[in-house]
Design goal:
This protein is of the alpha+beta class and about 110 residues long. The protein has 4 helices and 6 strands; from the N terminus they run βαβαβββααβ. Strands 1, 2, 3, 4, 5 and 6 form a 6-stranded mixed β-sheet that branches. The longest helix has 8 residues. It starts with a strand and ends with a strand.
């Protein structure tokens, strides 16, 4: 079973606010994820003592996006913890291309 950790955004994930995550994954790993996959959501990496908090279902095939194209709507879907797309870009570095994983929360715990 695949795992994605949500250390910074655990609560907004569980609240159903977060419906997308961006990851700095190598292409080969990212391409093992597919639309419809059920993925275990953890509060932090299980190797660091993380616990399963939910399951998510991928709603689209993962794709790459440059962070300079993040909008305020995208930032809200990320959980809204940065306040705006521009703040997200400043915090994460707008000249980075990350994998975008879109999902829905299907089960807690």
């Amino acid at each position: 079973m695949k795992i994605i950790s949500f250390a910074w955004t655990t609560q907004v994930l569980l609240d159903g606010v977060k419906t997308v995550t961006r990851r700095d994954w190598v292409d080969r790993y990212a391409m093992t994820f597919h639309k419809g996959d059920i993925v275990q959501a953890y509060d932090k990496n299980p190797r660091c003592g993380g616990k399963k908090i939910a399951k998510i279902r991928l709603t689209k095939e993962p794709y790459k996006q440059w962070l300079r194209y993040i909008t305020d709507v995208d930032e809200v879907r990320e959980g809204g913890i940065w306040g705006s797309g521009k703040a997200y870009q400043e915090a994460m570095g707008k000249d980075r291309e990350l994998w975008v994983i879109e999902f829905e929360l299907i089960k807690e715990g």
